[in-house]
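quick one, two chains, predict together pls
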Amino acid sequence: DQQVKQNSPSLSVQEGRISILNCDYTNSMFDYFLWYKKYPAEGPTFLISISSIKDKNEDGRFTVFLNKSAKHLSLHIVPSQPGDSAVYFCAARGSGNTPLVFGKGTRLSVIA
Amino acid sequence: DAGVIQSPRHEVTEMGQEVTLRCKPISGHNSLFWYRQTMMRGLELLIYFNNNVPIDDSGMPEDRFSAKMPNASFSTLKIQPSEPRDSAVYFCASSAGVSSYNSPLHFGNGTRLTVT
């Protein structure tokens, strides 16, 4: 039973446009959410995070939005660049001292 | 900071053979995690350690899988005997704390295992 779901396996976006990656979760006890980015032949690297007490966190071209009532978060990349082409993993942390739970990932392709 | 170091980067072995994957976490990190990435399941947590002690191994698929952390700077994941369905990329990750709240999880570059 997947607690963190990324329902789009892949997404293609033109360079300069907005990329929106979506993530849904089922566990209402999750209180901290992260996005990781993964290039081929490398491990995932931390990109941006958001606490459940916020609904938006911005870092340069990357913004994460959290809608707790819908148990949904999204990652916006504006403007998208070819170097953003990677697999993006959504992750969540439950209450207490528990490890992160990851989604299956979404492969983003930014086309020049 | 050398990051999390995994070896080997690639492993090709025949069904039935023993496979040992190795990991050196970031110095000072007290939590270590083993993940497996497949197309079907994405990133699955297999087992994690806190202060060298295994905390939760419920993600280990079968008794053929075992993991050890003899000291703070080294961990192994062993598969014996290996099967073709074990083919995947195995990641080791470390952080300063299990929940990664104040210290994001740092991943190694993974070991791509192919069992023929």
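The CA atoms of residues 26 and 91 of chain A lie 12 Å apart.
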